[in-house]
Amino acid sequence: MSAVTSSLSRDQQSKLLSLLGHVRLHLLYKASVHGFTAAAFHGRCDKQGPTVIVAYNAAGFVFGAYTSKDYTQSGADVNDEQAFLYNIRAQEDKPLRVAGISGQCAFTDVATGPNYGALVFLHEDKPAFQSNPGTSFHFQGAALHGDNLVLTEFEVYRAEGLGSLLPKPWRNMQWTAEKKQQLMKKIQNYKSDIKTVKQARVVLVGRVGAGKSSFFNSISSAFRGNMTSQAIAGIAASSVTTQFRTYTITAGKGGEALPLMLCDTMGLEEKPDSGLDIEDLVNIYKGHVKDRYQFSPSAPILADSPGYRQKVTLNDKIHCVVYVVDASQVSILTQKMIDKFTAIRKKTNQLGLPQILLMTKVDEACPLVAEDLKNVYHSVFIQRKARELSESLGIPLSCVLPVKNYSEELELDQDTDILLFSAVEQMLNYADSFFENQVVEDQAVNDQAELYRSSDHLKADLSGRIV
Predict the structure, then answer these.
(1) Is residue 417 left, alpha or beta, with left meaning phi > 0 and alpha meaning psi from -120 to 50?
(2) Do strands 51-57 and 129-131 pair parallel, antiparallel, or not at all (unpaired)?
(3) Is the pTM of this model over 0.85?
(4) Which pLDDT tens digit goes with each residue over 45-84?
(5) What are phi and psi of 199, to 5 degrees?
(6) SS3 track for the chain
(7) In the list 163, 282, 343, 390, which could disulfide-bond 397, CB 3.0-4.6 Å?
């Protein structure tokens, strides 16, 4: 299935937001995709908090209803003083807003389509609605919907409150040219604690469309000094990445390779037989999967497969795992996807690999951040989403890093680069933690071996003396 997108134009969305205040709209339900039925509506819109209906009719009218209350199919009449009906018209600068009649309920919470009394949507599970002015709301049918009761589209959005900007950032960040140069230099001069390992290997893991490949392209662009597109990125229902890829980043065109290798994987999908297989991921962790291995949707890689590396060194293994999640999708992560992340986390923990979570597309998730990226750590909304991810995926908040990838830009941006480089800095810090553990473990093994050798020598000496 192709990506579900809003039918609202930018002008229409702007006018609708003028009625709703400081919120972000998230599309929950689109009738042309999910079906013009009450069951489809309730399956995606129940218990979603404040929502706004956007209806489109055959006469070209855009209108609907807002409520701050949940749909629950309780069968009760729901009072909501904040509820209203509205109409958006291109020729009008301000949308029409119709408040509820005092003392009457806003809507009846039934199992049918949304019933606001004056407007009853998805009537009889059809692309149609009933109009009953004077029931809960007063309006003129011609002005609100042109007296045309046939729907061409019907959408429901969750209205997510953004909150105000925090007076103090929830994480400190310097947004200067000096800071950018400092981060670049630190990354370029990085050396692991293990002399034989020249590059820290970091693998990116995330659901389809989260921005894994775009993150690599963004880092590569920032270091090269111009936009690049080495990794295949795009928007699709299934993973654009079908191979395991290892990417080296250079400082400038033809410059030296950075001591960092980013590894891209196939996207995660909800279905157990789709997307990246967890066993494939474990083999990637252990260094068994070669560059350009073609993932199979039917079975994980086998030891006798052409892309399987039999003998591995520490250079081949993954040193840090980075989960990638779209910030605008945090609230609608399904339980199946959370369970898949949990299963991956369990396997990753067993292998002792440090883990970070990148929260991408923060500018798309929060308009305040879109206005100024430096608002990212002042944004109440972004902080809330970071906490949601931390709690639902079991990752410490300190390991959740918001970033913005390059997507539409043709020129580099200093603030974007600083946020990207800060994320890379943390990846290298966490890779260091992995190397330090390896050094300790290797030393313990060597100490134990030396003890055995000493014991053997002692036994030999004693034996010789007895003789």
Answers:
(1) alpha
(2) unpaired
(3) no
(4) 999 999 999 999 999 999 999 999 999 999 999 999 999 9
(5) -135, 130
(6) CCCCCCCCCHHHHHHHHHHHCCEEEEEEEEHHHHCCCHHHHHHHHCCCCCEEEEEEECCCCEEEEEECCCCCCCCCEECCCCCEEEEECCCCCCCEEEEECCCCCCEECCCCCCECCCEEECHHHCCEEEECCCCCECCCHHHHHCCCCEEEEEEEEEEEECCCECCCCCCCCCCCHHHHHHHHHHHHCCCCCCCCCCCEEEEEEEECCCCHHHHHHHHHHHHHCCCCCCCCCCCCCCCCCCEEEEEEEECCCCCCEEEEEEEECCCECCCCCCECCHHHHHHHHCCCECCCEECCCCCCCCCCCCCECCCCCCCCCCCEEEEEEEHHHHHHCCHHHHHHHHHHHHHHHHCCCCEEEEEECHHHHCHHHHHCHHHCCCEHHHHHHHHHHHHHHCCCHHHEEECCCCCCCCCCCHHHHHHHHHHHHHHHHHHHHHHHHHHHHHHHHHHHHHHHHHHHHHHHHHHHHHC
(7) 390
Structure tokens at 237: 């229902």
Q: How many residues does the chain have?
A: 467
